[in-house]
Design goal:
The protein has helices at 19-32, 47-56, 75-82, 100-107, 122-137, 141-156, and strands at residues 8-13, 36-40, 62-69, 87-91, 116-117. The protein has 163 residues and is α/β, with parallel strands linked by helices. The protein binds 5-O-phosphono-beta-D-ribofuranose.
């Protein structure tokens, strides 16, 4: 693997329909100046694509994988089964069970194969990108500075009194 400056984040999702949520991860990474790629990979509909992606991720300089999936959301767990790169799972807010199905599928991993599970939907997609930035920032002072500035301006934007 190359040095940390070259590490990318991969944002993968089970379907085109997940992109509405997962584009929020991309937006944050762009702001942080972190290289990323986006892909549609379904654990159920394209299992071979998933296998190829996960087993070559390390050699492709991917440092963190953000995986969004809805319903029987096996994508983050199956990717984590195939690589030791940190996997952050975003439960997509499904139409039928409002994402509770996605959340439980992603969070309830058996011991030995971890997935860092975020909140359901948009908050989860945004926090997944911020967490990915924190992981990359551990060995990248440029990203650390960007992240700290972002946090600082968030704090500054909170008014003391409601109107
Ligand atoms: C999952 O099924 C996807 O992650 C998506 O959230 C859900 C529905 O997919 P579509 O039927 O909209 O393609 O695999």
């Amino acid at each position: 693997m190359k040095n940390n400056k070259d590490l990318k984040v991969a944002i993968v999702m089970g379907s085109q329909s997940d992109y509405k949520t997962m584009q929020l991860s991309a937006k944050i990474l762009k702001k942080m100046g972190i290289k990323f790629e986006t892909k549609i990979i379904s654990a159920h509909r394209t299992p071979e694509r998933m296998y190829r992606f996960a087993s070559s991720a390390s050699k492709n300089n991917i440092g963190v994988i953000i995986a969004g999936a809805g319903g029987s959301a096996h994508l983050p767990g199956m990717i984590s089964a195939l690589t030791s790169i940190p996997v952050l799972g975003v439960p997509i807010e499904s139409k039928k069970l409002k994402g509770l199905d996605s959340l439980l599928s992603i969070a309830q991993m058996p011991k030995g194969v971890p997935v860092g599970t975020l909140a359901i939907g948009e908050d989860g997609a945004i926090n997944a990108a911020l967490l990915a930035a924190s992981i990359i920032a551990n060995n990248n002072p440029y990203i650390k500075k960007k992240l700290n500035n972002w946090r600082h301006s968030q704090t500054k934007s909170v008014k003391k009194n409601p109107k």
